[in-house]
Amino acid sequence: MRLNRTRTVILILLVAASLFVVYSAFAGSDHDPGSSGDPLVSQSYVDQYVQWEVAELERGQVLTGRAGTEIIVRRGQTVVIDPVGNGIPDLTAGADIFAGSRVPNNHLLLVPRDDGRAIGAQSAVVVMYRGGASVR
Fold it and tell me: Which of these CATH numbers, 3.30.428.10, 3.40.50.2030, 2.30.30.140, 2.60.120.10, describes 53-135?
């Protein structure tokens, strides 16, 4: 008889714990996920890291990326500027592009570090980038 009472108590505790977990999962927020009341990410994160910026460079201008900057040359001719000698990874081709080499249009480049790696315009250029970059 004592064994049945113990099983009953354990069963009641398990049911109560399960109900608590289910209630916590569904009643934790009054807002819909992804709404302004419960955003998945902040607006500043989206503005800085997700949205692509467009830059139009004139011949001789340089776009220098910060660590993590993604760059796509859409039109024109550019070359890699690399003061450290490691190149800029071309994720589309799966290879590094080294200083002085031409950047293929519509290839995704990734600047790995904040060390001055850049692309230089050899003609009028249209570039898309996201992350941090400066044009000089």
Answer: 2.60.120.10
